[in-house]
Structure formats: structure tokens, C-alpha cells
User: Fold this.
Amino acid sequence: MKMAATGMESKVEELLEVLDKDIQHIRDSLSQLNELRGLVIKRDESALGTLLRGIQAKADSYATTESKRHALRKDLADALDLDVQQMTLSRLETVLSNEKKAQVAQKKAELKMLINKFKKEHLSTAMLLSECARFNSLLFRSIFDLAKTGTLTYRANGAATWQTDQTLVNLHF
Assistant:
């Protein structure tokens, strides 16, 4: 079913508002990733807990924006006689007037730039957390694998030595 041009214009206006919320959400997420990395490095557990609770609360409230975007996408797809999966911002640009087309193109470009930045920041955060987990695992293995011997270590001068009977922690009291 085709919707009137004014109805489609109002749906596009609503979509632009939702895209603004999406852009702000991605910016907030970038800020949270930066803060998360800083708190992990500082080992501030209470601030990490507060940050994670805040992230969860924002994710729950953002769900309404996502559902509104999906509903608008479906309405616009119906108006253009398209399948919902075919309804993209690029496809929408092809049927809009010059003013709306420029607004949608600007939002699309901004979203694309922010998403690429988010992917990079997410990868950096994942790598930091992976290295922390690897380091903690090595540390715990060194401390708690007391019965194992034959560990290769290096002295300050670079010479390799094998520890055959020494442990990391002296258990004599």
C-alpha cells in the first residue's frame, strides 16, 4: 500500500530524529569504551561497577529507539513496495527530494564514520581485556603451579636459566 507523500515526509522526519538518537548513542558508547579502558588500567573496581550498571541502564532505555527505527523502516518499506531487508538509507535517498536526500546522506555519512570509529575502539578495548586476561592467567599459573618445575627464565643480563626446584612464593614461615 502506497502512503501519501506527506505521510512519507513525516516518516522520514521521524527517521531523521531516530538517526540523531542513534548518532548520540554511538557517541556515548565511544565515551564509555574510553572510560572503561581507563578504569581497567587504573583497576578501579567500584567505578567499573558503576559504569557497567550505567551501560546496562542505557541499553535498556535505548531499546525503545531501536524498536521505533525498525517500525519506521517497515513503514517506509511498505510505502515503497519493498521488502524490509531492502529498505536502506541508500535506497531511501533515491526516492527523496533534494533537501531530504541531503539530510539522509549527511546522517548516513556521520553514522558510517562513527561506526568505523566504534569498531576500532571496540577492537582496542577487546585487545586490552584479552591481554589483561592473558597476563592474569600467566600470573596465577606461576603462583599456583607450585609443583611444576623446569621453567625457563631470563636473568638481567639476558642469560637463560632453568628453574628446577624454585617456586615463585616461599612457603616457609
